[in-house]
């Protein structure tokens, strides 16, 4: 599929709901996650783990609720049954979403859920708390004479290693988004508004069976020099770079793919930087192997840039941010491909690979694909962009 030559209606007409759908996470896998979290919580010296609403709650229970001012949380004792803490009026919805066998601890609107947590634990219990638990709630728990410790390790050490079922869900999400990218490139024409492309991308994700785009960034020309874009409308002109960064969700698992390509004839500087970006992305991928550190992958990409006279470090022209981030139920999650992250790579870890190059106030090039660590190296979820003029081969 090429750049331009089609229209939104024609491309949407060619899309149907995705047929090769990955299976949802099975009950046995949720149980295994809970057992792993119990063991890690005990290693952390705690008697229970408290997981706040959000991606981690979904990971352990299947409940896809975001955090709010009302406490919804999983209390996981090291030696007992899981307990889900929830407002009483949400009981029916909770039961419909819950994917584990758990007790429910319900609180009314005029009650303090911290009291409920304290009653469920022995006096002086050591509670490992989700790092995303609001600070004010932590203070209330301390006021109830609970000892709090950091629950980051028990949660993140579970979530960082993806199972085959998770890899399949991630693969589907990324394949769907790559197809949307192909279709979006086909509708481009001089004068098209970035907002029209954004609307098309959302509709195309919906046509494939996702609940629309989970996010979408469309940038033309100078705006590509700003990693997350500029406010206001943009209109495409001949001879400009196009940068599109978007994703969707499949059973809560994220895609997040960026393509940068030429609309018409772009200059030699753009082409040279595009080629360096491609080389840096490939170098980061080639450096991946079990036992290597996250920061070493970032360093591999930056060595390419420095060899071409860019950088060093975060100096521009060059790479203004980390090379990549973990991805799963959160679009950005530990670990991170950045200097200072000494996390050791292991099979099942998943990352973006996006060593963006910015030429200040002129243009930027970001190629973003994802890989997962294997027993011997890495495997791409999506095939990287082959050229600046033919982004999909």
UniProtKB/TrEMBL annotation:
Record SUPFAM superfamilies: Creatinase/aminopeptidase (SSF55920), Creatinase/prolidase N-terminal domain (SSF53092)
Iron among keywords: no
Domain Creatinase N-terminal: from-to ranges: 33-161
Keywords: Hydrolase, Metal-binding, Metalloprotease, Protease
Domain Peptidase M24, first and last residues per copy: 169-375
PANTHER family: AMINOPEPTIDASE, AMINOPEPTIDASE YPDF
Family: Belongs to the peptidase M24B family.
Name the record gives this protein: M24 family metallopeptidase
Native source organism of the sequence: Sphingomonas hylomeconis
């Amino acid at each position: 599929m090429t750049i331009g030559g089609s229209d939104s209606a024609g491309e949407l007409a060619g899309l149907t709901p995705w047929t090769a759908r990955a299976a949802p996470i099975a009950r046995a896998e949720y149980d295994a996650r809970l057992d792993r979290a119990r063991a890690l919580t005990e290693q952390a010296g705690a008697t229970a783990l408290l997981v706040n609403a959000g991606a981690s709650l979904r990971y352990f229970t299947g409940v896809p609720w975001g955090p709010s001012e009302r406490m919804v949380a999983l209390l996981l004792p090291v030696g007992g049954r899981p307990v889900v803490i929830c407002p009483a009026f949400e009981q029916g919805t909770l039961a419909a979403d819950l994917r584990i066998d758990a007790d429910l601890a319900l609180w009314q609107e005029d009650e303090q859920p911290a009291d409920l947590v304290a009653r469920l634990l022995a006096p002086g219990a050591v509670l490992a708390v989700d790092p995303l638990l609001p600070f004010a709630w932590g203070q209330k728990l301390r006021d109830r004479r609970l000892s709090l410790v950091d629950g980051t390790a028990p949660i993140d050490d579970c979530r960082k290693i993806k199972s085959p079922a998770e890899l399949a869900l991630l693969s589907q999400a990324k394949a769907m988004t790559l197809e949307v990218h192909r279709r979006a490139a086909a509708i481009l024409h001089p004068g098209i508004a970035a907002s029209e492309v954004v609307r098309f991308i959302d509709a195309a994700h919906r046509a494939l069976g996702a609940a629309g785009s989970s996010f979408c960034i469309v940038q033309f020309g100078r705006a590509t020099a700003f990693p997350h874009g500029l406010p206001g409308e943009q209109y495409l002109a001949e001879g400009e770079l196009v940068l599109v960064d978007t994703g969707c969700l499949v059973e809560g698992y994220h895609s997040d793919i960026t393509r940068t390509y030429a609309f018409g004839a772009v200059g030699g500087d753009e082409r040279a930087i595009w080629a360096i970006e491609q080389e840096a992305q490939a170098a980061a991928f080639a450096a991946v192997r079990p036992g290597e550190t996250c920061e070493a992958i970032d360093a591999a990409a930056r060595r390419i840039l420095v060899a071409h006279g860019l950088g060093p470090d975060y100096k521009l022209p060059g790479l203004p941010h980390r090379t990549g981030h973990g991805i799963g139920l959160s679009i950005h999650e530990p670990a991170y491909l950045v200097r200072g992250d000494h996390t050791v790579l292991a099979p099942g870890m998943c990352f973006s690979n996006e060593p963006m190059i910015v030429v200040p106030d002129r243009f930027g090039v970001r190629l973003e694909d994802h890989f997962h660590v294997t027993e011997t190296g890495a495997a791409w979820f999506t095939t990287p962009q082959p050229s600046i003029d033919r982004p999909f081969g």
